[in-house]
Design brief:
The chain has helices spanning about 1-10, 10-40. It has a domain at about 1-40. The protein starts with a helix and ends in a 20-residue tail after the last helix. The longest helix is centred in the middle third of the chain and has 29 residues, at about 10-40. The protein contains two helices and no strands. Keywords: Membrane, Transmembrane, Transmembrane helix.
Length: about 60
């Protein structure tokens, strides 16, 4: 167990493993949460005339 901790926290390769593993976990969690949010908030179809584009709608 000590060898694993030494590798992860005391070597560049171990820190790279921790970094990219954290990115993978965050991407997976974002994917799961996006699917859940997509089911909760259904697309309402194309915008009607006069619909507000939001805070920066007229700027871009």
């Amino acid at each position: 167990m000590q060898d694993i901790f030494s590798f992860l926290f005391e070597s560049r390769a171990g820190l790279a493993v921790l970094f990219f593993g954290g990115l993978a976990v965050a991407a997976f969690a974002a994917f799961i949460l996006e699917r859940r949010t997509h089911k909760m908030y259904v697309d309402r179809g194309p915008k009607q005339d006069g619909d507000d584009d939001g805070l920066f709608g007229g700027l871009l």
